[in-house]
Amino acid sequence: MKTEITDIPEPDRVPGAPHPRHAPRVIGQGAAIAAFTEAARGGRLHHAWLLTGPRGVGKATLAWSIARWLLAGGDSADLTVDPATPEARRISALSEPRLQLIRRPWDDKAGRLRAEITVDEIRRLLSFFHLSAAEGGRRVAIIDAADDMNTAAANALLKVLEEPPRDALILLIAHQPAGLLPTIRSRCRTLRLSPLAPRQMAGILADLGIDEDAEALAALSDGSVGEALRLAGQGGLDRYQDLVDLFATLPRMDRLAASRFAEAAAGRAGAGGDPFDLTITVLDRFLTRMARAGLMGAPLPQAARGEGALMARLSPDDIAARLWAGAQARLSARARAGRAVNLDPAALVMDMVLELAQLPPAQSAPPPRG
């Protein structure tokens, strides 16, 4: 049975939060906004812009704000556009003919989102530019996220960037731009977005009705509102607490607890998010914070009960910090590769956890008292 379009999850939306196209404004990224508007007003509008920065700091919100501003003929310095304009209403409804969104497509046969942006999606972008050229005027494409493109898609996009259509603007959102082809990066102008300050984070979370655990969410999301919302909506703090509790059993890891943690990553993805993605996220955050603890001391505020004491025990110095940082880079790459070839999530997570349990800091640390 064919899936109704309204039932398809949006891969570029944080579960439990509005899609970025509905956000009225960009918060805390004044430098990036100024760089774009100055280029546009000065007649120096490059044909391709690479929006980079940590996941969830507003890259997609900025891309949609740029699209509205350009297509509605806006003149505000902060990219705001009256939401009542016809262009803004059409963009919100994904019915603006001069705008094309490229994201991971739905596989109706498999009943899930594809793991990658395929070459067929980039060919659809080529058709959009070709068919809309006759209408004239500015046309905008948003690729969210460029990190998701497979090799064939990236090569097809490179051809577009090498010979850009007239009056076309391509906005590429990239969480890890180093993974893109160097030739793609070299043909784009980069806008770097920064993590939000704690005060900005607190204010945004309060506006969204999240007061409880706001401090822990801000710590774990590392200045990313999008990540804070995703973690809040998917029970990320509980998942992170499970991970901290698991590593507190070192140097003799509780295998039963490790198995339960790994099995929880194998649930089916849905409107509430993907359990495997959530698990990889909390593992990545844990390793990043572990590495920082070795360099700067146990983190404050803590993101879980007992986190500070655990990190002081397992990452007491810069030598340990380097080991945890190396593990983070290695396991992050393994997780991406495993998803691309559809490895069993539970088995993959279990292998990762057991590998971490064998790191020298984990093996040499004495068990916690009490």
From TrEMBL:
Domain (AAA+ ATPase) ranges: 45-196
Keywords assigned by UniProt, alphabetized: Nucleotidyltransferase, Transferase
The keyword rRNA-binding is assigned to this record: no
Record's keyword annotation contains Nucleotidyltransferase: yes
InterPro entries for this protein: AAA+_ATPase, DNA_Rep/Repair_Clamp_Loader, P-loop_NTPase
UniProt biased composition (Basic and acidic residues): 1-13
Pfam families: DNA_pol3_delta2
A GO molecular-function descriptor: DNA-directed DNA polymerase activity
Region called Disordered, residue ranges: 1-20
EC top class named in words: transferase
Domain of life: Bacteria
EC number: 2.7.7.7
UniProt cross-references to PANTHER family, sorted A to Z: DNA POLYMERASE III SUBUNIT DELTA, REPLICATION FACTOR C / DNA POLYMERASE III GAMMA-TAU SUBUNIT
NCBIfam families to which the protein is assigned, alphabetical: PRK07471.1
Protein name: DNA polymerase III subunit delta
Species: Paracoccus nototheniae
Lineage: Bacteria, Pseudomonadati, Pseudomonadota, Alphaproteobacteria, Rhodobacterales
